[in-house]
Amino acid sequence: MTEKLELLEEHRVFDGTQRKYQHHSETLHCAMTFSLFLPNVEKFPNPSLVWWLSGLTCTDDNFTHKAGAQKKAAELGLALVMPDTSPRGETVADDADWDLGQGAGFYVNATQQPWNANYQMYDYIVTELTTIVRETLGLTGSESIMGHSMGGHGALVIGLRNPNRFHAISAFSPIVNPSDVPWGMKAFDAYLGADKQAWASWDASKLLASHDGKPVPILLDQGTADNFLHVQLQPENLIAPEGYPLKIRMQDGYDHSYYFIASFIDEHLDFHKTYL
Length: 276
Known about the structure:
Elements (H helix, E strand, L loop, with lengths): L5 E8 L2 E10 L4 E9 L9 E6 L7 H6 L3 H7 L1 E6 L37 H16 L6 E6 L1 H12 L4 E7 L9 H11 L11 H6 L8 E6 L5 H5 L12 E6 L6 H18 L1
Parallel strand pairs: 4-5, 4-6, 6-7, 7-8, 8-9
Antiparallel strand pairs: 1-2, 2-3, 3-5
């Protein structure tokens, strides 16, 4: 697999290294990029790994460039991996709308044509990219996962579906109940079909409500000035079983942007470090 992985960029930052890679994905049938931050490997030879999943229209660059996470990650000895948000390329199905198709993979495995040919983002992250990270890049430390908006949905779903792998989950402004909000309903209808029973295993609110396995601690931050709060996000719909370690914080005056993420990313990384 090593020969399939191309290093596109490498930058020294905060006593660590920021990299960007490209590879051909056998799961998505296209070229994919992902970014990786490594703390000082002499100080942290086997760092814990935090996965970051970005939101609609984003690539792996948005978090890397805007969140300001590297300084805190370097201090805590955390590696950060940032996948892209969908398959890409001229042969990959797309839509004229910004909230469907390329840049809007929703971290599910599509079952409907034409999407099912490429849109297998869950398997790409949980299996293929994981294998690259572990076997090619040698990162075998403990793991947690976080994300923003559509990526917050992805982090919650992937974390809850893999409780023995991910030690903690956090999210900024996540789509917690995609089965019942416009963004999620549009994407799920296209990718998964009209049968809403098939949507439940990709809906964090439903996964958490019925969760009976190992509890994965969750931290959720939501800005009160977020334009998407009441129609698309609805954090009040994320209801945990009694005693489940879920903390939802409403942050006064913050919106949906990366300014919000940058304001609280250090606290999220501290949260993850607690459990890693």
